[in-house]
Amino acid sequence: MGSLKVEKTAIGWAARDPSGVLSPYTYTLRNTGPDDVQVKILYCGLCHSDLHQVKNDLGMSNYPMVPGHEVVGEVVEVGPEVTKFKVGDIVGVGLLVGCCKTCRPCKQDIEQYCAKKIWNCNDVYTDGKPTQGGFANFMVVEQKFVVKIPDGMAPEQAAPLLCAGVTVYSPLNHFGYNQSGLRGGILGLGGVGHMGVKIAKAMGHHVTVISSSDKKRQEALDHLGADDYLVSSDNEKMQEAADSLDYIIDTVPVNHPLEPYLSLLKVDGKLILMGVINTPLQFVSPMVMLGRKSITGSFIGSMKETEEVLHFCKEKGVTSQIEMVKMDYINTAMERLEKNDVRYRFVVDVAGSKLDQ
């Protein structure tokens, strides 16, 4: 174990401005503190919210910014107060790297709703250093925000579970939709949506994929295991499916009408919003009143739920469908992601990209 007092250099790929173009960037990691784990990054998934961040879509971006929050790596150093991990462990780091630990959400182990939570990139840590994400060779993280990857789970497969997987698992778990026999809808078949199909099916649900076109029908039914497929512009089929779903997980990250999907819900059904959208969504109130329906949202998941989803997917044999790329392909991957041209999650082989050479 190296000295805990020595700052180390990290090499990542960072955006410098709202163009979102990433290029090599060298910076210093904060010292590995008593409760910290230093991780050598092996793989990192690419999420649509990374695209929002690097392009300043939400007006809150600070540069230079190293994105990436589906991080899997190997522990190379632990602080003296670390009890959960040892050098050599394969671990995961998601979107959060800090919280206040004293507010109501923190005390309820739902720290993702802490008002003082710290993002793993585009934020400032308690020591004043900017946080940088997983498109880099190393990171230092407090042990509370690190999870063990289950033995036997492929590390590259684990990466999307740390955001896309837990983002779907959390609301299904919280709203009591983790029992078999339910009928669910997955709106949008991207990175989060494809995990939604797989996790909901593993929970024993009848799953309908809802999409804007017919082009993903065969993939949804034959490869992901969905039970049904609806094209939202097919009014006849949409009307036939009215009042048939217990819930819809809405993963669409751009502005879209809600009313066509509210009509698909049963009485007391829930439309669960997950896409990050920076313009107001609209609906007419009778669409929720006449059926006591709910429009709600859910944000990633807690550290406890992150551990749970990893073990759930290991037990059920749930895997993500990934396309592995090297870091020098990341800008092309970003462009393809913006066009929804990926089936269904890019994962960067960070260690294989040899960033330090």
TrEMBL record:
The lineage of its organism: Eukaryota, Viridiplantae, Streptophyta, Embryophyta, Tracheophyta. Pfam families: ADH_N, ADH_zinc_N. It comes from the Eukaryota. Residues 20-348 form the Enoyl reductase (ER) domain. PROSITE patterns: ADH_ZINC. Belongs to the zinc-containing alcohol dehydrogenase family. Its cofactor is Zn(2+). The keyword Nucleotidyltransferase does not apply. This is Enoyl reductase (ER) domain-containing protein. InterPro entries: ADH-like_C, ADH-like_N, ADH_Zn_CS, CAD-like, ER, GroES-like_sf, NAD(P)-bd_dom_sf. GO terms for molecular function: oxidoreductase activity, acting on the CH-OH group of donors, NAD or NADP as acceptor; zinc ion binding. One of its GO terms (biological process) is lignin biosynthetic process. Keywords: Metal-binding, Oxidoreductase, Zinc. The keyword Zinc applies.
